[in-house]
């Protein structure tokens, strides 16, 4: 699973995801992409589950790009522990995803296979998504998944 090799700080504040994505909102690598429509933290497990679903449907043809990385440490205290005594240990890693962010891109497969692969991948994520496409003329169209 994805996680940073090294971080500047061991634990992070929770923070909020405000507004829409500042960058990463257009297709840069593939012809098809999965775009987030809601703000949410996506865990490393969810990213991996989505990647597996997409690559399995594509039968290892084509190419997949993951455009998000879980660099936010999420802490958790054990069950039935009293309040206080400091912040809990790192439980898992997550990526902050703002609306409009392209999370996955694929290329090298037919339109039908690409859309179905991204639909199956989207089912593994806790947010609403759209399948975005790059046409030959450079115009981007969107379809709700």
Write up this protein.
The chain is of the alpha+beta class. It has a domain at 32-76 and 89-144: Aldehyde Oxidoreductase, domain 3, CATH 3.90.1170. 18% of the residues lie in helices and 30% in strands. The protein has two helices and eight strands; from the N terminus they run ββαββββαββ. It has helices at residues 44-57, 111-122; strands at 32-36, 40-43, 63-66, 72-76, 89-97, 102-107, 129-134, 140-144. Strands 3-6-1-7-8 form a five-stranded antiparallel beta sheet, covered by helices on one side. The protein has a three-stranded antiparallel beta sheet with strand order 2-5-4. Strand 7 and strand 8 (140-144) form a beta hairpin. Helix 1 (44-57) packs antiparallel against helix 2. The chain is elongated, with a radius of gyration of 17 Å. It starts with 31 loop residues before the first strand and ends with a strand.
Topology:
Layout: E1 32-36, E2 40-43, H1 44-57, E3 63-66, E4 72-76, E5 89-97, E6 102-107, H2 111-122, E7 129-134, E8 140-144
Antiparallel strand pairs: 1-6, 1-7, 2-5, 3-6, 4-5, 7-8
Helix pairs in contact: 1-2
